[in-house]
Design goal:
2 copies of one chain form a homodimer. Chain A is α/β, with parallel strands linked by helices. The first copy, chain A, contains 13 helices and 11 strands. The first copy, chain A, starts with 5 loop residues before the first strand and ends with a strand.
């Protein structure tokens, strides 16, 4: 399988619309699909091929990007499966992945979960930005039975068309990771702001809010509907990962109670090391070439790269081989 | 008592040095004092009056600012009390206040705790900045027995010389407030980074760190010595305030476990309201004038203003009266 040439984007809000605009700018034959009449008007104004009918959108497409809201995605897969070509590949952009992979069981072998990690406070096709994904992480979660061909084509689409960083990990790991890297931070920010709100000290906390309080509560200003949807869609992973966070807090509070200076230094030194690694990750650029017959090694390479925190920035076919450019933690 | 005209700053690191430089720029007769020989050289290069001897520094001064490290402050008060003039006033810049007020008992009636809430990642007199306190909150914690005269002069020094916002609250309230507004945020940031560091997902958490994780762990990059000192110096208040934060987290986790959408919406809506109040506080400017005989009302006004989250921006004596300009939450 080569690069995708005929693409459909189902659901053209901020994320789907940005994918549609970028693919269109890249000269790809792409069509958007959304049930909202206002969105159809915006697509027409922007000169983007568009239809309100899913069946029409997916016929003859080699990649179908499902960018509808999470709850609509599940039912959507059956409609897509009923009309799409046998050779087509389907991906999505939802922020959790084990549930989506389960919902896509009717697309077995043709579905790879996706999660582009970019966004703004805006929404809708009018706010779509063809450069939204430039240099952003874009997670791909193939099922365990995937063949290399659709995954390779999708990695190439993410890196070379969307200009994002492709990170291949399995769905369970994705959900556990985002519970820690994105969802639990909302719980902590909410707890800090919520405790301050409920305290008789609320007026002086507001007056004396230091940088640490402002940073620590920033995402508590997010629309509560969005925060709650996120937590409930990734419930199990949030509950599983909470144990480590609660355990660290218990150790800190016990050491404060017992005045244990050295224990606290150890705890905060470990935390500082990870924090510093996040803001200044040293990466090494490497290329790897795989002959087309070596699909098992190519799959293993992509999965291993993702597991160590690396990502693909380029995927170039050349004759019967494929060359990846990747960044690996140094 | 009028505006302070002869000031000593004991301990000239970043905070003390910035006070020294600002007072010197304002044309006040000020002297710095620090035992460190390197600091003496920097003071000489900056043209700042300086001595290494505390007794020499404090003689004949009407305001003595104690800006030594927290552990050195306590012993320092006795040395200051032994040499200073009877009419002098003493303040400090430490980040906790009940312990400092207790340690300053030998200065009864002449000591008012202070906490300028400004700083940078730098340290030492070489990094001192005369504009460090411009528009920064500067808490003043008078003991319950204080007379209006020294407090009025210190408010005027903070607002009109240091150009900061003077917030008058009692020491217990200060410590409980900063536990929530500054110290507990370090515990939460450490827990998020520390749990990620201890997790098998550490590499992918680092790779996928969203804005929420970056903001939520920012102060986990602070020097652990400083974080731990802060927590241990304010132990009791941190432990007391932790209850509200832990309670909020328990409610969120239980609601996630039980899939209780409405409960979560309520919790995060309360949090969002406080967060939005912190970043966009509507304030009203008001002036109040007190005749010099009305000290009790003047004291009550300053304390009430601080308790509701307000602050003084100007304090101007005029004949036998004093006019305050203050910002109050609208």
């Amino acid at each position: 399988m080569e690069a995708f040439r005929r693409i459909a984007v189902i659901g053209t809000g901020l994320i789907g619309g940005s994918i549609l605009r970028r693919a269109h700018d890249a000269g790809i034959d792409v069509i958007g699909c959304d049930p909202d009449p206002g969105t159809a008007e915006i697509a027409s104004r922007l000169g983007l091929p568009f239809t309100a009918d899913v069946g029409t959108a997916v016929i003859g497409r080699d990649l179908i990007v499902c960018a509808a809201p999470l709850d609509a995605i599940r039912g959507g897969f059956d409609a897509i499966a009923a009309s799409m070509d046998d050779g087509g590949v389907v991906t999505d952009v939802g922020s959790t992945k084990t549930d989506v992979l389960a919902a896509a069981s009717s697309l077995a072998g043709r579905f790879i979960g996706g999660h582009p990690m970019a966004g703004t406070e805006l929404s809708g096709l009018a706010a779509a930005d063809p450069n939204l994904f430039t240099d952003a992480p874009w997670v791909l979660c193939p099922p365990s039975t995937i063949l290399i061909e659709p995954l390779r084509s999708l990695v190439g689409f993410v890196t070379d068309v969307m200009r994002a960083k492709a990170i291949v990990i399995d769905a369970e790991r994705h959900d556990e990771t985002v519970a820690l890297s994105s969802h639990i931070p909302h719980v902590l920010a909410g707890a800090l702001a919520g405790a301050a709100a409920a305290s008789p000290m609320a007026p002086t906390v507001t007056a004396l809010a230091a940088g640490s309080f402002r940073d620590g509560t920033r995402v508590a200003g997010t629309n509560p509907d969005r925060t709650v949807d996120m937590l409930l869609h990734n419930r199990q992973a949030v509950l599983d990962q909470w144990g480590g966070v609660a355990g660290f807090m218990d150790e800190v509070l016990e050491a404060v109670r017992d005045n244990e200076h050295e224990t606290l230094i150890d705890l905060f030194t470990g935390a500082a090391t990870l924090r510093n690694a996040v803001v200044a990750r040293a990466m090494t650029t490497r290329t790897r070439t795989f002959a087309s017959g070596d699909g098992a090694a190519e799959l293993a390479y992509l999965r291993e790269l993702g597991a160590v925190g690396g990502y693909v920035t380029g995927c170039v076919p050349s004759g019967l081989a494929t060359t990846y450019t990747a960044e690996t933690p140094a």
